Amino acid sequence: MTASTLLAALVVVTVAVVGPLETLFDRALSLFGGASCAAGRVAIGGDIFCAGYMQQALLAGLCVGVVAPLVGTFLVHRRLAFIGDTLAHTAFAGVAVGLFLGASLDAPVSPYAAALVVAVLSALLVQAIAEYTDAYGDVAMAIVLSGGFALGTVLMSLDSGGLSVGVTDYLFGSLSLVTRANVGLLVVLTLIVVAAVAIAYRPLVYLTFDETAARVAGVNVRRHERLLVVLTALVVVAAMQIMGVILVAGMLVVPVAAAAQVATSFRQSLALSVVAAELAVVSGIVVSYYFGLQESGIIVLVAIGVFAVAAAAAWIGVPERATSLLRQVDDRRVR
């Protein structure tokens, strides 16, 4: 079979699959829209989630509330929270590349697709620098972070203003960015991240608690470290629509930090961090809608509020339980 035959077969299969999937997605989105509209009327007493763009924003926010703490829990307990910031800044470079190519070639280049490619490549670059040079992990992250942001600013300076205006929305996030196509991409990324974490859950937990023991147990440490940073890149790009480049790292860290205050096991920390993130996302969307405020800022502030409440509750009520999970991780690392 020749390459042209294979390509033709691939195109036929893609066309045959994409059509039914789009129809299924439209039906699912319609059902979700009806349910969210009814739930909004009951819970808030308004039609906030009856408009199509708000339903898309809510679905996007709920997806972010799942995947960000899901991956962030492994990062925070491995003390790799900084990598979220690093990949967010490289995703900014990816957005600038996409907008620049679109403007230069007069072609429909998706900034999110470009950001996804650049963020994944940057994640692998961070891992490669840490593995094959004498640089420590945080040095590798700092190099890639500054390089990504520098590339983005250079590309912005090549344009006479129009590109800068486009990038601003991606820096701070906006509900207007959440189109039907972007929601579809976000749902696909969410399914990929959830499936990958479910499949690699045990090795990732081994890595989190005791890297040496994981090697002894036969876990391929390098492969799973690469998997974790690539999943982080996917989450960063997914959350960038609402959170923006500057605040996207907050959803990877703050809900996890809140859950760690009261959780007594890793699984419990995962579950509570998702609850905290969903609370912050839904509250942030509602408050920003009624008061005309920046939704990404409100979401992070609500998440910090949840962290403060959890920390106070743990300190007042059960201080020993409050730090038990963190102590477990620290104790394993000290051994």
What does this structure look like?
There is one protein chain. The mean pLDDT is 81. The chain has helices at 3-43, 52-77, 82-105, 111-132, 137-157, 162-172, 180-199, 201-209, 211-216, 221-262, 266-291, 295-316, 319-322, 324-334. The protein has 335 residues and is mainly alpha-helical.
The percent range for strand residues is under 5%
Rough outline: globular
Annotation field: number of helices: 14
Query: Helicity level, as a percent range?
Result: over 70%
Average pLDDT number: 81
State the secondary-structure class.
mainly alpha
Order of helices and strands: HHHHHHHHHHHHHH
Overall radius of gyration? 21 Å
Question: What separation lies between the terminal Cα atoms?
Answer: 57 Å
Low-confidence stretches: none
> Sheet bearing the most strands, described?
none
Strand tally: 0
Kindly list the characteristics that best describe this protein.
335 residues, 0% strand, 85% helix, globular, 14 helices
Report a brief summary of the structure.
With 335 residues, the protein is mainly alpha-helical. The chain has helices at 3-43, 52-77, 82-105, 111-132, 137-157, 162-172, 180-199, 201-209, 211-216, 221-262, 266-291, 295-316, 319-322, 324-334.
